[in-house]
Design goal:
Shape: globular
Radius of gyration: 23 Å
Helix content: 25-40%
Oligomer: single chain
Largest sheet: 7 strands, antiparallel
Order of helices and strands: HHHEEEHEEEEH
């Protein structure tokens, strides 16, 4: 009789463990896999989903959108966002007339931490605590040839709103990677005139 009761107790314990494990697995699938259900490259193919997952905490649902718009003066902007219930990573890559010097100066003295810079050739990037920006020369396809002497550029800005998965240097790196991929995609779909081979990724931030 004693052995029978012991067996029954063990069976009950095993069932409880199985149910608990199954419940936890079900919770993960239902309530934390929203980002995993996004396309492999959200924002119309602009960025890798893995970068989004590095930027945003797990969530039950997530949605995304990417589109390009054109203005009357032959400039273009590629817009992108990925959002969950509580967090968003968003950015835009916009063509314009900023020189590299003007672009850099606009991020000096920001309250969002001291700028960290990396570059590959003419592709420049700056990371702040909650913002990243990338600069590259780019002449829009409809720009008249007689205006080529004017500086033309493509600049991207990316930031998080709400909670982020990582903080500090790790967040700066994620946002810079996001901004770089956004710039690379916008350069292609915006049909910048200059032929350019982008690297696979930006250099990693160096820390002491």
């Amino acid at each position: 009789m004693m052995q029978s009761d012991t067996k029954k107790s063990l069976i009950v314990v095993a069932v409880c463990i199985a149910l608990t494990g199954g419940g936890f697995f079900g919770y993960q699938q239902i309530f934390t896999k929203g980002i995993d259900r996004l396309p492999a490259k959200p924002c119309a193919g602009a960025v890798d989903r893995s970068i989004v997952a590095d930027a945003l905490p797990a969530a039950r649902t997530a949605d995304e959108r990417g589109k390009i718009t054109e203005s009357v003066n032959n400039q273009f902007t590629f817009w992108c966002y990925v959002r969950t219930e509580d967090s968003t990573v968003s950015g835009e890559a916009k063509s314009g007339f900023a020189t590299e010097e003007v672009w850099r100066q606009s991020y000096q003295g920001q309250r969002d931490g001291d700028p960290i810079s990396v570059s590959v050739g003419e592709v420049k990037a700056i990371g702040l605590e909650n913002l990243a920006t990338v600069y590259v020369p780019c002449t829009p396809p409809q720009q008249a040839d007689y205006k080529v002497e004017r500086t033309h550029s493509l600049t991207a800005n990316v930031r998080t709103i709400g909670e982020s998965r990582v903080q500090g240097v790790a967040l700066r790196q994620v946002l810079m990677d996001f901004a770089f991929q956004l710039t690379k995609h916008a350069y292609k779909v915006g049909k910048c005139k200059e032929a350019r081979d982008f690297p696979d990724r930006l250099p990693r931030i160096q820390t002491d």
